[in-house]
Amino acid sequence: MLTPRRLARPRREPNPSAPTAPAPEPVSHLLRPRPEDLGASWPAHAHRCRQELPAELAWAPPLIDPEHPQAVVCGHGQACRLIVWHHHLPTYQHVSFTCQRLSGITGPAGLPER
User: Fold this and answer.
1) In the chain, what are the domain boundaries?
2) Considering the entire predicted model, what is its pTM?
């Protein structure tokens, strides 16, 4: 039952300092797969690596695709999280990739023009 006291209480406004969903990071890094480093064992390593991929790295599967790996662009924090995660995998799950800082984005899909 609503009493006069309850009716007189003002409703709380949402807290403006409450955490919200993180804003997308600006694209700053290019990660390129290097399947040539592992040769014929790339598909097996990539398959094992992808099985361990955490949800926070859901943007990374194209980089470690067993059959058709592709370069991906990401933010600095994303690149760091991927590298730290990958570093702690056992060697039989390691794949090879490079990380390049982008100075300017001029090409399609954020890839630097050559």
Assistant:
1) 29-102
2) 0.68
